[in-house]
Amino acid sequence: MPMATAAGHRCYELWDPMPDEVREGARRFAAVQALNELVGVLQYVEWLDRAPSHTRRQMLMAKIQDEVGHGHVVARVAEDLGMPRERILLDYLEGRTKIHNIFHYSFATWEEVGPGLLLTNSAAITQFQSLAKGVYLPYARALRKVEREESFHYQHALDLTHEILTHGDAEQRRRVQEGFELWLPRILAYLGPPDTDTLHTNRMWQVGLKPDGNDEVRQAWLNKIIPVVRKLGLHVDPALVRQAPSGEWEFEMPDWAQVKKVIANGGPSSQRRLDWVRRALDRNAPYRRALQGVA
């Protein structure tokens, strides 16, 4: 029997009868997340042979391994709901699905990696904590597992940023500040367009797969991350983000037309991501066929 949540929605296991919208929505949520975990990891792969120390390279390798693992965890959720793993990547190559705006960019300098990861990981954790309250229990459990491991990545990013700000020279500290100012608007956009006035019409909210609106998640994230970056010594430009007397965070609204263009594979690293995935699928096709017993 499906169980009830505190919000009044029914919760479902894979074997429970459930509305088609819940099944299809959970499959889409899990497939999209799997795609972004697997393709998003290429941001870090690009720095494996450029990390400035053996320790940092090991930490980066551990993050890459974790992210690929996260992709497979949520891909299994999608697979159980009828979405083959290979189809997740093929849909991306064929233009049916997109990766998040942030994964269409690469890190230009090592100093940019720390604040970029700090903002990205903290936003992802906040988002996963929200989605884990959703009604499809296998996806909620997968998110809680992913979230726990993301906390290690957050600590890595925090340590890396602190290290450069503490021991780096003036030029390195300037690059960290620039990296923060570059990635902050991207993450504000990653959390989605304002939806306070329209959330009640969103079917994923209505059926309980999207427990919180974009604005709620963004405010929760800003409440957590802004004190952290200020404690690190980074300057938060009030033109980008500022706190109103009410306590609510105000921010420079992203150019949503430009964000949409980036998501539609119009970003600086979009083609490189597509080419890498296409080469990997082509290169490994004989091995996949062998594993499937059809070689």
UniProtKB/TrEMBL annotation:
Protein name: Phenylacetic acid degradation protein PaaA/phenylacetate-CoA oxygenase, PaaG subunit
Organism in which the protein naturally occurs: Microbispora amethystogenes
PANTHER family membership: 1,2-PHENYLACETYL-COA EPOXIDASE, SUBUNIT A, PHENYLACETIC ACID DEGRADATION PROTEIN PAA
Pfam family, one: PaaA_PaaC
InterPro entries listed in its UniProt record: Aromatic_CoA_ox/epox (IPR052703), Ferritin-like (IPR012347), Ferritin-like_SF (IPR009078), PaaA_PaaC (IPR007814)
Domain of life, source organism: Bacteria
